[in-house]
């Protein structure tokens, strides 16, 4: 979004071209609900790992609601800022803004309302540290990544990935009101997972990104270089996934499960680099989502079911 007059100028043609009436499904789509659900799982695990017992519902409910609403708001701002490039890519052209079912003004109001509500919930019922850290993540994704990094550098998703990686820390601070090294380690897992997650899709959709002139790595440095980077990040992720066990935060259930997932993911990265079929990149992208979900469920199961680990420090 460059300024208010652009928003006004945009509203008219989009509203006039509207092909269908806006409904609640359009608003839901703006929030990237599947992404937010996975973000909330990582936040929930951050909350649970921060305490030896169950998380009190008086914190659990407002923390998940606040983080979810602010993430949804960030996603809606991403739709607003990216509406022109979304209109140029096959994957995104049917979204509510490029398809004309919602106007930019409505999207801005929606993002402001749910974002403000999310912040108020965190500030009133959780704590100010979590409220401000979540706000920083919103700014990181909706403004720094979407408005600047995405259009400026092929390292966009590496740096921007920090915002999407923050929820385990947000969950942890919601419960303890302090930043703990264990929470940072959970952030590091999601942070290192993001490049193979996204670049696998970018390899599959490289022509789309080139058409929209977005400097994603496969566009600027080619498919082969991107596949090498995916392989290297996948190895790094495998190493980082060992840390929860090595520092005594998680036990053998986690170690065995996460090692299987890491080897599996590495198998995809290896195939993508050395023996790809047309669909390997897309299958790896899909697998990355299941892998992160399974990894965080493992952390949770290990925490509550496994034998108590010996904690450092
Ligand atoms: C800068 C960081 C990230 C980038 C650039 C990125 C990029 C993408 C893209 C382009 C898609 C396809 C969306 C679509 O087809 O509509 C996607 C899907 C997805 N991403 Fe990411 N992602 C990032 C971080 C994350 C994080 C942190 C999570 C969760 C912890 C996540 C979870 C998902 C999920 C669940 C989907 C599937 C959505 C669906 O099927 O509706 N992503 N991601
Ligand atoms: C408060 C908080 C935790 C904020 C983070 C919220 C959030 C929704 C992070 C997910 C990152 C993501 C889906 C990036 C893709 O954007 P893209 O523009 O590259 O993808 P697109 O082309 O599919 O829109």
CATH class of the largest domain: Mainly Alpha
Largest sheet: none
The outline comes out as: globular
Average pLDDT confidence is 93
First and last CA, distance: 47 Å
The chain-level structural class is mainly alpha
Q: Which regions contain 5 or more consecutive residues with pLDDT less than 50?
A: 1-18
What is the helix fraction of residues, given as a range? Answer: over 70%
CATH topology of the largest domain: Tetracycline Repressor, domain 2
Strand content: under 5%
Instruction: Tally the structural domains.
Output: 2
SSE ordering: HHHHHHHHHHHHHHHH
Count of helical segments? 16
Radius of gyration: 20 Å
Query: Ligands in the structure?
Result: protoporphyrin IX containing FE, farnesyl diphosphate
CATH homologous superfamily (4th level) name of the largest domain: UbiA prenyltransferase
CATH architecture of the largest domain: Orthogonal Bundle
Task: Count all strands and give the number.
Answer: 0
Catalytic activity: heme b + (2E,6E)-farnesyl diphosphate + H2O = Fe(II)-heme o + diphosphate
Organism: Pseudidiomarina taiwanensis
Keywords: Cell inner membrane, Cell membrane, Heme biosynthesis, Membrane, Transferase, Transmembrane, Transmembrane helix
Protein name: Protoheme IX farnesyltransferase
Task: Report on the architecture of this protein.
- The protein is mainly alpha-helical and 313 residues long.
- It folds into two domains: 1-152, UbiA prenyltransferase (Tetracycline Repressor, domain 2, Orthogonal Bundle), CATH 1.10.357; 180-313.
- Helix content is 76%, strand content 0%.
- It has 16 helices and no strands.
- The chain has helices spanning 4-16, 24-30, 33-49, 57-81, 83-86, 104-125, 128-152, 156-165, 167-176, 181-204, 206-211, 217-221, 223-240, 243-246, 252-274, 280-305.
- Helix 3 packs antiparallel against helix 4 (57-81) and helix 9 (167-176) packs antiparallel against helix 10.
- The longest helix has 26 residues, at 280-305.
- The protein starts with a helix and ends in an 8-residue tail after the last helix.
- The relative contact order is 0.11.
- The site of farnesyl diphosphate has 19 residues, from helix 3, helix 4, helix 7 and helix 8.
